[in-house]
Amino acid sequence: MKVKWVGIAAAATVLMFAGQAGAAVDAAAFKALAKKKGCFNCHGMDKRILGPSLREIGRKYKDDTSAPDRMAVIIKKGSKGGVWGKDAMPAYAKLGDDDIETMVEFVLSLR
Ligand code: HEC
Description:
Blueprint: H1 2-23, H2 27-37, H3 54-60, H4 67-77, H5 97-109
The chain binds heme C.
């Protein structure tokens, strides 16, 4: 019986943390995703490459309540360029909504 209770307590703890992780910005998940998808080829954390640095983006839109939705569309469908420079952002049509949300939340949390 003792073993069973320990199992239930462990499961409850995991659920608690899972709930918290969902609400908070998940930097580790962002970095793993961005690495896998090649975002860092064009966006440094603090350095412009082909696109703006991620921190610049976070600062520019910090008070813009429509930024999260717009940014999600740009990541999914790409841009034509002209917002930050002449270069365009490629579309990531295959990224799931959860992954896009992780990315948008993280970028907008940067200052
Ligand atoms: C081939 C280079 C390239 C890659 C790869 C790339 N981007 Fe971009 N990104 C750009 C450029 C260039 C811009 C600026 C576009 C413009 O001015 O319209 C941009 C703009 C952005 C913006 C700002 C949009 C805005 O509203 O101003 C975000 C957010 C962004 N990229 C996120 C990402 C994420 C997340 C990834 C990986 C999934 C990624 N980018 C991969 C080149 C790239």
